[in-house]
Amino acid sequence: GQYRGGQSLAFHDIGLYKVPHAAPENARKVVGLNHAAFRLRTPEEVDKAAELLKANGVKILKGPLTHKEDDDRYLYFEDPDGNVLELVASTLPNYPDAYLGKERRTE
């Protein structure tokens, strides 16, 4: 994560590079990145993102649905390079404000 003034800002960098050849057909079955997930504030934002992505011809792999194990709302899709990305949002009551430190709440 990134730190400033001794405080974690709770995000990470991802470096993506253009390479001369496409990934092999079996890329998802060998060692490497499975997917990257990005947390949204509300389940409704996941649903809205799904509509926007579909309207723009993005390949939706799964969702929007709700995970059985944690009730998170999710959507899996492919970026133009075939990487799998997930948008996810908690369905816990008052999330995220009830779970953030006072300094990060939106209220």
What is the approximate shape?
globular
Order of helices and strands: EEEHEEE
Q: Rounded to an integer, what's the Rg over CA atoms?
A: 17 Å
Uncertain residue segments: none
Strand content: 25-35%
Number of strands: 6
The rounded distance between the terminal residues' Cα atoms is: 25 Å
Structure class:
alpha+beta
Tally of individual helices: 1
The portion of residues assigned to helices is 10-25%
Neighbour order of strands in the largest sheet: 3-6-5-4
Average residue pLDDT: 82
Q: Strand count, sense and closure of the main sheet?
A: 4 strands, mixed
Main traits of this protein?
two-stranded antiparallel ribbon; globular; 107 residues; alpha+beta; 4-stranded mixed β-sheet; 12% helix
Describe this structure in words.
- With 107 residues, the protein is of the alpha+beta class.
- Helix content is 12%, strand content 25%.
- It is built from one helix and six strands.
- The chain has a four-stranded mixed beta sheet, with helices on one face. It has a two-stranded antiparallel ribbon with strand order 1-2.
- A hairpin with a 2-residue loop joins strand 1 and strand 2.
- The longest helix is centred in the middle third of the chain and has 13 residues.
- The chain is globular.
